[in-house]
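TA notes, week 10

Several of you asked for a full example with nothing omitted. So below is the full record: structure tokens for the whole chain, then the designed sequence directly under it. When grading your own attempts, check the secondary structure regions first.
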């Protein structure tokens, strides 16, 4: 009796169909992606692999009793309209924006690809499909980190462009006076302003590279910093009064910018004859300091927005000054609040020291 092709020496007794099924079964069970077989008519899971159970936190039995809308309730209509319709029309589909809900209620960003498993009868379309879910949490986190970095760099650029205006205005004013009077005192002021600009640019460049708003902290005395900043404005307008002072742990350069921007805000809105007062806050629960003026104050309905980037009530303002102040305060772990001064002007209270 002649040998059949499957009965000779060295032949594989396993039918080709069974061998293929075994290979696909191993891929199904051991792939890192979640794989789910879905009945398109009933929208039920027919089979799921271990990776699907691990991703979603359910047992196989639990998933087989569920529907796709149970794991992506917020996206179910969009999935039907965009993804499943692709599978019906083209035999395969893909979307990279699907949020799945785990058994613990945690949201997992995923991308999903799928393909029809059968052509259907009489051209009615497929009745089953294989859906493959891939966890893209790392990718999403990386994208968000890049977006935060870009936003932070944009803000650093805003800080640089805004805070360089003061020393630049000093240089411009002193150059005019030097030409008119020839007094060397003006050149000394120009040198100081240039040194201040160089210091600001160097420190901000370092902070940009490190990704932080503030650098190393040292113990600094408030009155000393405030009086150092005030003459840099090169103006005879306004009066600075120190009612009380204290030593604080802070980034010296950033606190100087904080004072500069609050002084600038008061002079822009309260006028040339404004009086600015600085003092300490001491309560049973907290400590801090305040900076207030005797101007017209800030309306109550605007106080929630004054620290927003780009918010300004003047035609010449950039809307960065108070936003920079809030950023510096937050980076130190402090809190800032705006209220009425005793004299009726604006009072900024910085607490949490």
């Amino acid at each position: 009796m002649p040998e059949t092709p499957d009965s000779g020496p060295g032949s594989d007794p396993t039918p080709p169909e069974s061998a293929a099924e075994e290979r696909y079964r191993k891929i199904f069970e051991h792939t890192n992606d979640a794989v789910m077989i879905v009945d398109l008519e009933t929208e039920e899971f027919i089979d799921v692999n271990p990776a699907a159970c691990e991703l979603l936190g359910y047992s196989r039995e639990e998933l087989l009793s569920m529907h796709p809308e149970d794991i992506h309730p917020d996206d179910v209509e969009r999935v039907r309209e965009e993804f499943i319709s692709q599978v019906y029309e083209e035999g395969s589909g893909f979307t990279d924006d699907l949020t799945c809900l785990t058994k613990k209620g945690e949201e997992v960003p995923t991308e999903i690809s799928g393909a029809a498993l059968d052509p259907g009868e009489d051209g009615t379309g497929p009745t089953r499909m294989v859906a493959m879910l891939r966890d893209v949490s790392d990718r999403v986190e990386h994208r968000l980190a890049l977006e935060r970095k870009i936003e932070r760099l944009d803000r650093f650029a805003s800080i640089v462009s805004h805070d360089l205006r003061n020393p630049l205005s000093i240089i411009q004013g002193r150059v005019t006076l030097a030409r008119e009077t020839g007094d060397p005192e003006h050149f000394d002021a120009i040198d100081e302003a240039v040194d201040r600009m160089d210091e600001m640019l160097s420190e901000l460049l370092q902070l940009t590279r490190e990704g932080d708003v503030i650098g190393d902290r040292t113990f600094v005395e408030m009155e000393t910093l405030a009086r150092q900043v005030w003459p840099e404005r090169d103006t005879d307008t306004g009066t600075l009064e120190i009612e009380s002072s204290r030593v604080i742990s802070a980034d010296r350069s950033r606190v100087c910018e904080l004072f500069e921007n609050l002084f600038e805000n008061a002079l822009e809105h309260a006028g040339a004859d404004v009086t600015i007062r600085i003092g300490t806050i001491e309560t049973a629960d907290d400590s801090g300091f305040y900076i207030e003026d005797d101007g017209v104050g800030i309306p109550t309905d605007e106080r929630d927005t004054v620290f927003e980037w780009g918010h300004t009530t003047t035609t010449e303002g950039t809307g960065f000054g108070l936003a920079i102040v809030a950023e510096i305060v937050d980076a130190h772990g402090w809190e800032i609040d705006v209220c009425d001064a005793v004299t009726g002007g604006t009072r900024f209270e910085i607490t949490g020291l």
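The radius of gyration is 34 Å. Use that as a sanity check on your answer.
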